[in-house]
Amino acid sequence: MTAQLIDGKAIAQKVQNEVKEKVTARVAAGKSQPGLATVLVGERVDSATYIRMKQKACDNLGMNSFHRPLPEDVSQEELDKLIKELNADKKVNGILIQLPLPDHLDEERALQLVNIEKDVDGFSPINLGRLAQKGREPLFVPCTPYGCIYLLKEVGVEISGANAVVLGRSNIVGMPAALLLIKENATVTVVHSRTKNTPDIVRQADIIIAAIGKREFVRGDWIKPGAAVIDVGINEMPDSSKKRGYRLVGDVNFEEAKKVAGHITPVPGGVGPMTIAMLMANTLHAAEIQE
After folding, report:
1. Judging by DSSP bridges, how do beta strands 263-264 and 187-191 pair with one another?
2. Residues 87 and 151 grouped into a single domain
3. 54 catalytically annotated
4. Active-site position among 7, 121, 206, 231
């Protein structure tokens, strides 16, 4: 293996340790504990798992967590009412609406209702709009893209002046990641389902962020020698040797890519832990700006 493995678990733990120290000092100074409210509509197993992980992180860092589950058939009016209540609750510094929402609910409306100072997921149209504008800064950046950029900086990858390719254009990862890279003075190309000559475009990249949702889509011979590869994908690969019958792989063929890349994140253990770590950092920041 020639690539340096980017240890997302270790870097995320470092971030969480720093947050915990600040929370402890904050409480010792007589200030309030930061509080995160999570809203889960329905009983999706994966969403419920993510919520539990976020609650556990809050507990470990000395933060308050408030979980507000809602039934699958909740009305838009009832969801709106809950968000407004959480906006008004001074113990709640951050509000996280677990996505996706059921089809009958208006996701955009729900995200717009969240107070911008409590938008710790960074999905408010106002925060995303500020991210897209030169000379303006959002209060919060979406946690997964935030974690991707943090990883690159932590291992010393030079972003300014680099050619970067982002695979995927979702509002959750792809587009915010591209905007963050632009803010760091990279030259950015976004690859998506209508892009032509994708392998040729990826081969020009000094930095690759793969968030396209396709198992092992990026092949080793697409990668420029020495490039930094951040793999956001989490996909199931059938594997009879595993008790559950599958293993997790990313959007990049890791075995091929690690022989060419300069830096690479594993799946699991790369970007995933960073998402929660950055959420905790955002929640602390929310408490600080609400004082």
Report:
1. unpaired
2. no
3. yes
4. 121
Q: Are residues 262 and 146 in the same domain?
A: yes
3-state SS assignment for residue 163:
strand
pTM greater than the 0.90 cutoff: yes
CATH of residue 45: 3.40.50.10860
Among 7, 16, 22, 98, which one carries the catalytic annotation?
A: 98
What's the CA gap between 241 and 255, in Å, rounded?
18
CATH classification at residue 250: 3.40.50.720
Verify whether residue 206 is a known catalytic residue.
Answer: no
Same domain? 56 vs 101: yes
- Sort strands 246-249 and 263-264 into parallel, antiparallel or unpaired: unpaired
| Measured CA distances, 233 to 199, 215, 218 (Å) | 18, 8, 11
Would you give per-residue pLDDT tens digits along the chain (291 residues)?
A: 689 999 999 999 999 999 999 999 999 999 999 999 999 999 888 888 899 999 999 999 999 999 999 999 999 999 999 999 999 999 999 999 999 999 999 999 999 999 999 999 999 989 999 999 999 999 999 999 999 999 999 999 999 999 999 999 999 999 999 999 999 999 999 999 999 999 999 999 999 999 999 999 999 999 999 999 999 999 989 988 888 888 999 999 999 999 999 999 999 999 999 999 999 999 999 999 998
Among candidate residues 261, 278, 255, the one with its CA nearest the CA of residue 155? 261
Catalytically annotated residue among 22, 54, 118, 258: 54
Report d(CA 280, CA 271) in Å as an integer: 15
Q: Which domain holds residue 187?
A: 142-271
- Cβ-based burial of 33 (10 A; exposed 0-12, middle 13-18, buried ≥19): middle
Check: CB of residue 118 under 8 Å from CB of residue 93. yes
Identify whether 153 is a catalytic site residue.
Answer: no
Residue linked to tokens 């559950």: 244
